Amino acid sequence: MNESIFIYVNFSKPGYKEVLKRAESIVAELGLSSKSFLNPIILYHTASETPPRCIVTIGGDGTILGNVSIAANSNFTLDVPILGVNLGKIGFFSETDIDGLKAALESFLAGDYRIEEASMLKTAIEGVGECHCLNDFMVAKKGFSSVSHVEVSVDGCSMGVIHGDGVVISSSTGSTGYSISAGGPVVAPNLDVILVTPICPHSLTARPVVASFDSKIRVTALSACVLHSDGVQLMPIPANTSITVQKSEKTAKFIRIGERNIFRLIREKLV
């Protein structure tokens, strides 16, 4: 690794130019060079060829999810740790805001930090290929007024057919994403599992399931559905099409400074 820090800024965020300029100035004050990017594909292509000390992402949770997804699905490196600077509303993945960036980078450069390695999921789609995600995959109904019918199995054991808005299959990291809004549990950060959470099911017997991270989840769309990955619509799924979801060999690395209490973050951010 060289002595450079890469900075990615989400240019859709208000005031991004001023925040980017301040971040570049902070890196220079610490005696390092920086390269700034507005395009995550160029960022990770460059990082794969010449890895920096870290990647500073300026934006919200969607910014980090999108960057990790692009890197994972383009086979770019995910070895470079990410330091998230929050410009969004929630900022679960972020470690600081712009006011705390200098102190966070000083701790990182002094070795006073830890790496949080977040497990990822991958899906295999019949006749299409694989896709990796950090938070979750969702198989959902096609339209607002329609109902989806999906059969779900865990390691070959059928959970039955879920009639409703769809189903979310999430990682431990994704337990605080769409899954928690759909009634799924919060997973402690030291536990790797796969969550299967029905979305607005039409039956009280359709409940969230916590499966081993080594499990294979199979979802068969009995009606036409849509597949989403980390909140982004991937593709339509025709009726009688199956996908499988299981652990990915890829992980994302986040720089953490000091204590990180996921339960306190939920109380503070999900209000």
Overall description:
- With 271 residues, the chain is an alpha+beta fold.
- The chain folds into two domains: 4-112, Rossmann fold (3-Layer(aba) Sandwich), CATH 3.40.50.10330; 120-249, Tumour Suppressor Smad4 (Sandwich), CATH 2.60.200.30.
- The protein is 21% helix and 40% strand.
- Strands 6-5-16-13-8-9 form a six-stranded antiparallel β-sheet, with helices on one face.
- Strand 5 (114-125) and strand 6 form a beta hairpin.
- The chain is elongated and about 60 Å long.
Notable traits:
single chain; Rossmann fold; 6-stranded antiparallel β-sheet; 6 helices; Tumour Suppressor Smad4; alpha+beta; 21% helix; 2 domains; 271 residues
Strand and helix layout:
Blueprint: E1 4-9, H1 16-29, E2 33-37, H2 40-49, E3 54-59, H3 61-73, E4 82-86, H4 101-109, E5 114-125, E6 129-133, E7 136-141, E8 148-154, E9 157-164, E10 166-170, H5 178-181, E11 193-199, E12 209-212, E13 217-221, E14 225-229, E15 232-237, E16 241-256, H6 262-269
Parallel strand pairs: 1-2, 1-3, 3-4
Antiparallel strand pairs: 5-6, 5-16, 7-10, 7-14, 8-9, 8-13, 10-11, 11-12, 13-16, 14-15
